[in-house]
Amino acid sequence: MAIPKAYGSYEELLADRANDAVYNPLPNHFHVEWTLKALQAGKHVLSEKPIGINLQEAVYLQKEAQRFPHLKVMEAFMYRHHPQWATMKKLVESGAIGEVKSMHAVFTYYNVDPANIRNQADIGGGGLLDIGCYCTSASRFLFNGEPVRVCGTMEYDPQMKIDRLASGVLEFEKGTATSTCSTQLAHQQSISILGTSGKMEIAKPFTPGPEESCKIIQQTGAEIKELTVAACDQYTRQGDLFSQAILNETSVPTPFADAVANMRVIDDVIASHQKRMWVEIEF
Hints:
Blueprint: H1 10-15, E1 21-24, H2 31-40, E2 44-48, H3 55-65, E3 73-76, H4 83-93, E4 100-110, H5 127-143, E5 149-156, E6 163-171, E7 176-182, E8 184-195, E9 199-202, E10 214-220, E11 223-229, H6 234-248, H7 256-275, E12 279-280
Parallel strand pairs: 1-2, 2-3, 4-7
Antiparallel strand pairs: 4-8, 5-6, 5-12, 6-7, 8-9, 9-10, 10-11
């Protein structure tokens, strides 16, 4: 949570009764602590992803949040609120490319600054928690369910001790999702979806600019369609949807259970790497 100039500390911000809700963009290891403090102060909370640095933290926060049923808590996966994902999901569910059987997601960038919070292992740094979580979330969103087992492999930076390269295979009942994330490769992000009668690609699935129109390329046989989705500030839209849930006393767009489920999969990808074997997921 960025501290406005009117406040000298986070505590002062939370104590101000004029604030009904807060956005928690702090480093990963502060997500649980300050989300809980905000709830205790009577504030609704939109917390940056991941909701915790492991499944244990996510489950703990979920349990604690249940003590405040009148307050909303949501994990901030902003990409889900961009119209391009609604368009893609509608096309998939309509059978535009047949039965979807495979998806591949890539999200990479290059950052070797040891002072950067993403490169500090003891505070939840590393590729999986920073950007790999998007790939996991997108896979679960696309297949509209949870994987039954996962297989993961990771490479760690020898000095900074963070995972700098991670790849995973998520096996769903209806198909398979693969992904690669890295904090030390050339910048890239993409989604490829393969169905029994066609395929789709999203050129910039996770972080399109607020004034940048997005493209979905759909191919069925020899026919290729390029769909343009109007520009959208997905961060603002996410905030608006969260605010509407508060004002209208309705459910948030993404329930807390989804954040816990995503963290469970990430933990099992790590466990798979450590055990050098497939890991069955228990929900």
